[in-house]
Automatic annotation (TrEMBL):
Enzyme superclass (EC): hydrolase
Pfam family, one: Peptidase_M24
Organism of origin: Brachybacterium massiliense
Cofactor: Co(2+); Zn(2+); Mn(2+); Fe(2+)
Domain of life of the native organism: Bacteria
Binding-site residues for a divalent metal cation 2, renumbered to this chain: 109, 176, 209, 240
EC identifiers of the protein: 3.4.11.18
GO molecular function: initiator methionyl aminopeptidase activity; metal ion binding; metalloaminopeptidase activity
Cofactor binding notes: Binds 2 divalent metal cations per subunit. Has a high-affinity and a low affinity metal-binding site. The true nature of the physiological cofactor is under debate. The enzyme is active with cobalt, zinc, manganese or divalent iron ions. Most likely, methionine aminopeptidases function as mononuclear Fe(2+)-metalloproteases under physiological conditions, and the catalytically relevant metal-binding site has been assigned to the histidine-containing high-affinity site.
Any one GO BP annotation for this protein: proteolysis
Binding site for a divalent metal cation 1: 98, 109, 240
Protein name (database record): Methionine aminopeptidase
Keyword tags: Aminopeptidase, Hydrolase, Metal-binding, Protease
Length: 278
């Protein structure tokens, strides 16, 4: 578990993190346009690496604790931390892409899950949809939460209400603080734990990232010491946003509109975007 010393950011630092997050949002949008049967995860990784470098930013996954790529790309039963390779994607694959970057020393981190072409089943569609909904349930909870642990409770409640026992959480993995380093305190779990977590305060920036598996939540770490693979026969999805807590409310750093539309749908007004014109 991460130590409970939480880095609080100034408004100026959050503005730089917003720049980092917006660039990452654009990288994910670019990758979404290229996902199709036949493309390899290596090719997607190269596209992301080149765009990040061309924009003057730095990939923060590449070289992190020896990680060999710009992105984690997890296909089907791989839940998280899949290493890109030369395998072509196939129709109906579920592909989770997790990436991050650094702008002027400040980090962003975000993940999206895609279905390649037509979905294989309604269960796959439900998995991807519910994982996305769970992310926004957690973000929405942050707007009124007193402690970090309430985020995981909201995610767990949404998954239980939407999926019953058909989906499982990846236990032992979760979100984290983010800022001058990619992984900081506090831990942000996706389900209830005995810890209430630290108090929510303005200046906190959190990466919230539900990871759900069809069927049982059993998993194994592959021999590469990175790839986490489900062992119960189900597929997985993983989504993530980096979110800032400000005096004016929440700003979703890695969403194009700062989270305004999704938060408004839940009765929440997003914080003003520091990069907005006017």
């Amino acid at each position: 578990m991460l130590p409970e010393r939480v880095e609080l950011k100034t408004p100026e630092q959050i503005a730089v993190m917003r720049r980092s997050g917006l660039l990452l949002h654009r990288v994910h949008d670019m990758l979404a346009e290229h996902i199709r049967p036949g493309i390899t995860t290596d090719q997607l990784d190269t596209l992301a690496h080149d765009m990040i470098r061309d924009e003057g930013a730095t990939p923060n996954f590449l070289g992190y604790q020896g990680y060999p790529a710009t992105l984690c790309i997890s296909v089907n039963e791989v839940i998280v931390h899949g290493i890109p390779d030369d395998r072509p994607l196939q129709e109906g694959d579920i592909v989770s892409i997790d990436g991050g970057l650094i702008v002027e020393g400040w980090h962003s981190d975000a993940a999206r899950t895609h279905i390649v072409g037509a979905p294989r089943s309604s269960a796959d569609e439900d998995l991807v949809r519910i994982t996305g909904e769970a992310l926004w349930a957690g973000i929405a909870a942050l707007a009124t939460a007193e402690r970090v642990g309430q985020i995981g409770a909201a995610i767990e409640d949404h998954v239980t209400d939407a999926a019953g026992e058909t989906l499982s959480h990846l236990e032992g993995f979760g979100g984290h603080g983010i800022g001058s380093a990619m992984h900081q305190a506090p831990d942000v779990m996706n389900y209830r734990t005995r810890s209430r977590g630290p108090k929510i305060r303005p200046g906190m920036c959190l990466a919230i990232e539900p990871m759900l598996i069809q069927g049982p939540g059993s998993w194994v770490l592959e021999d590469d010491d990175w790839t986490v693979r489900a062992t119960g026969g189900g597929r997985a999805a993983h989504v993530e946003h980096s979110v800032a807590v400000t005096e004016q409310g929440l700003l979703v750093l890695t969403e194009g509109d700062g989270g305004a539309a999704e938060l408004a749908a839940r009765g929440i007004t997003a914080a003003p975007d520091p990069l907005a014109a006017g």
